Amino acid sequence: MRCIACNRGLSDYEATRRHSTTNEFIDMCNECYFEIEETIASIEREDLMHPDDEPELHTGPVSTEFNGS
Ligand SMILES: [Zn+2]
């Protein structure tokens, strides 16, 4: 099973993520799903979740240039 967006191999957790209304498998890796998760609600098999499946925070380097005050 591979991500339909980037073709990366999916973990069990990623591969079993379903759309919450259509109940269809979304078949997207965490990174790609992260981009759409606010528009597609899903049912996730949290029992299959591994630490590796934690969504990476897309915050990037935190700006520390707030030196005022
Ligand atoms: Zn992907």
Radius of gyration equals 15 Å
Measure the end-to-end span: 52 Å
Associated small molecules: zinc ion
The major beta sheet can be summarized as: 2 strands, antiparallel
The number of distinct β-strands equals 2
The strand order across the widest sheet is: 1-2
**Low-pLDDT segments, ≥5 res:** none
What is the overall silhouette?
elongated
Number of helices: 2
Output the structural class. Answer: mainly alpha
The arrangement of helices and strands along the chain is HEHE
Q: How much helix, percentage-wise, in residues?
A: 10-25%
**Percent of residues in beta strands?**
5-15%
Mean pLDDT: 85
Note down, in words, how this protein is organized.
This protein has two helices and two strands. With 69 residues, the protein is mainly alpha-helical. It has a two-stranded antiparallel sheet. The longest helix has 7 residues. Zinc ion binds next to helix 2.
Properties at a glance:
mainly alpha, 16% helix, two-stranded antiparallel ribbon, binds zinc ion, 69 residues, single chain, 2 helices, 6% strand, 2 strands
What is the element layout, followed by pairings?
Layout: H1 12-15, E1 18-19, H2 30-36, E2 42-43
Antiparallel strand pairs: 1-2
